[in-house]
Amino acid sequence: MRIALLADLHANREAVEACLKTVRKAGCDRIVLLGDIVGYGADPAWTVDTARALVEDGALAVFGNHDQAALRAPREDANSARRHSDAQAAIEWTRGQLDHAQRGFLGSLPAFIEDDDRLYVHANAWAPLDWGYIGNALAAAQSIAATSQRVTFCGHVHEPALYHSQPEGGARHFAPRPGVPVPLIASRRWVALPGSVGQPRDGNPAACCALYDTATDTFTTFRVAYDHLAAARKIIDAGLPQELARRLITGG
């Protein structure tokens, strides 16, 4: 089975369409959405409807922190004070863009999914709904220790990365090269991050996605060029913070 991995769509229609086209052309058998379907971008209703249609067609999807925030009334949003002002503005705007059915779909998403030897989760395995980041080898080792699954696929961190267990303990970071399959050696346990579809943050505006091939046990990342200028213009036209548009243009 060839599993397409799309994380952090962030209401970016142009990027989602480009990534779906790429993974379908690569011959994926299943699509997995790793959370944060909404937030930041100008097309939340479209991305939710697209995610719902994919799930109805057999895709898997998990809950992200921006999805959670968009469902909460302002008085119930305990994290609003800690959230960056631009992200908070996007959340408040997004709340007004979703109808009852769209909110219901987001609210129905599970915190994580275990599938064979794989764990799909937005942030991490040790506390899926506390939204801690796997931004270094120490956090990766903590996530590996918290699950019995051999491979954990997650989003939240907006840069592609791989971590694997070490015989002596801990974990080691590996930076995958786009388009180059990386064997996930069976004697190791892995954390695989495909990067963000809708808001990359590594200085490259191209969207991120990945493909995991269960037959060859390989993980391949992709960088997908898309019309990020059009997506940025939509953000400005919607009255959202200009910094969110700049991020799409610069990849940061």
UniProtKB/TrEMBL annotation:
The segment(s) forming the Calcineurin-like phosphoesterase domain are 1-216
Q: Which InterPro entries match?
A: Ap4A_hydrolase, Calcineurin-like_PHP_lpxH, Metallo-depent_PP-like, Pesterase_MJ0912
Record SUPFAM superfamilies: Metallo-dependent phosphatases
Give the protein family. Answer: Belongs to the metallophosphoesterase superfamily. YfcE family.
Protein name per the record: Metallophosphoesterase family protein
The scientific name of the source species is Lysobacter brunescens
